From TrEMBL:
Keywords: Oxidoreductase. One of its GO terms (molecular function) is oxidoreductase activity. It comes from the Bacteria. This is SDR family oxidoreductase. Belongs to the short-chain dehydrogenases/reductases (SDR) family. Pfam families: adh_short_C2 (PF13561). CDD domains: Lin1944_like_SDR_c.
């Protein structure tokens, strides 16, 4: 129970990887607050997590709203950000600069603004864990914008680890994970895509959100890890 009575805020904690992180932190004894845009998703997450968890509707691109959330939350120990928004996957020529900027506004600037708003309330013994992605080191065709965003997140993590010490700052970099992120696809197409991707991985299978949650839990618990981007991608970088 090494997160016993620690308070954790998980922005993006109502779905997929973030929801699995919330469950894992609760199992480790933490008190958990999840946030995301949709009140329906927040309500559903609280139903699943139980009444010990709290939830708030928040768009992490909204600087004033994010600041208000952390003023209401008050002092806490661990910030996790898994919120993402749309993914800009398209050949470079096909993606407009506006679409690329909108994705940066969400995944990069959303995480940046969340850290800025949360910082006054994070205890010095606490941690910040952001979310990158395996395109940081191994771009697939059509992922140049996501590769740039994830690399920017990695750089931010290293810089913040220096600037914010003794608060620890790390990131998890997932490969493909079976989450509602792919919920827009029909089940057959999604399964076919997962099978095709799995064949390219050393481990020959797609990750489950719980496997990612273990990585976030490690980074919150381990009191000597900072400035690290923890790759959890089934061997994607070596295959
Ligand atoms: N799944 C993968 O294969 C994969 C691979 C590499 C990297 N990642 C990264 O892992 C992270 C989590 O992905 P996931 O698969 O868990 O996705 P997911 O299941 O779609 O969950 C994303 C969460 O972010 C919230 N969110 C989206 N935009 C938001 C915003 N503007 N403000 C606040 N909350 C917002 C969503 O809730 P609302 O809709 O209610 O806002 C949801 O709770 C992302 O950073 C993603 O880029 C995922």
């Amino acid at each position: 129970m090494s997160l016993l009575n620690h308070r954790a805020v998980i922005v993006g904690g109502t779905s997929g990887i973030g929801l699995a992180v919330a469950k894992s932190f609760l199992d480790l004894g933490a008190r958990v607050i999840v946030a995301s845009r949709s009140q329906d998703k927040v309500d559903a997450a609280i139903m699943e997590l139980g009444q010990e968890a709290q939830g708030h509707a928040l768009d992490f691109r909204d600087e004033a709203g994010t600041k208000r959330l952390f003023e209401n939350v008050g002092p806490f120990d661990h910030l996790v950000v898994t919120a993402a928004g749309d993914s800009a996957m398209a050949p470079f020529e096909a993606l407009s600069a506006d679409e690329a900027r909108a994705t940066f506004d969400s995944k990069f600037w959303g995480q940046y603004l969340t850290v800025k708003a949360a910082l006054p309330f994070i205890r010095k013994s606490g941690s910040i864990t952001l979310t990158s992605g395996a395109f940081n080191l191994r771009p697939a065709p059509g992922s140049s914008t996501m590769s740039a965003i994830n690399s920017a997140v990695d750089g931010l993590v290293r810089g913040l680890a220096v600037d914010l010490a003794p608060i620890r700052v790390n990131a998890v970099s997932p490969g493909v994970v079976d989450t509602p992120f792919f919920g827009g696809m029909d089940a057959a197409s999604r399964e076919a895509m997962f099978q095709a991707i799995a064949q390219t991985l050393l481990l020959k299978r797609i990750a489950k959100p719980e496997e990612l949650a273990e990585a976030y839990a490690y980074l919150a618990k381990n009191s000597n890890t900072t400035g690290t981007v923890l790759q959890v991608e089934g061997g994607a970088l070596l295959s």
